[in-house]
Structures are given as C-alpha cells and as structure tokens.
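Handout, section B. The chain below has 110 residues.
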Amino acid sequence: MELLKEIAAELTQAEQARARGNEGRARVCARRAAGLAARDYLIHKGIRPSTSSAMDLLNLLKSDPLLSSDLKLIADHLTVRVTEEFKLPIQVDLIAESRKFCDELLKQRP
C-alpha cells in the first residue's frame, strides 16, 4: 500500500532528523506522518478534507466524537506550537506518539 510506505518514510525521516540533532525537522516529519493517516481516516469516513495540511487535519480530528481520548491527546500534542526558543513546551516523544496515532487510525480502516 502506498499510504503505508509514505507514512513509514515520514517516520524514518523523523528518526533520522532526530539522530542528526534536528528535533524541529523530526517534529515536522512526525506531524506529516500523522496527517497522512488522519486524511485517510477522514476519507474512509466519507469526509473529503479540503486541505492536505497535517496541522489542519489533526485539528479537525480533535473534534471527532468517535475518536478516542488517547488519540485526541496525541493530535493535541502534535499540534502544540513551539516556544520562542523553538522548543516544545511539553515533554513527549512525538515520533512515538505519531507512530501510535497512525497505527491506531489505520486499524480502523474498512
């Protein structure tokens, strides 16, 4: 499946960026992976998102009444803005959370 390859590629890029010390790039790649899964989830629910922005898709999912509170929390973490020092104001592993988010959404595919 092409989607699975795209998600895996984004998560691999996130891990590589983190290994190089580029946490900002790692966050972006983790968010993009989650955005791909979010878009697929919405499409399978019959919703045609008008955007491909991972941030917009994740924000849209946060209001989905059928989404578990755990996944809503992950979506919230993935959309948290960084501080003026470009640091995440919460202590979470966005790559691990993105991986869990993607896995859980993809399990819900028909």
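Note. The chain has one domain: 2-107. Compare this with the example in section A.
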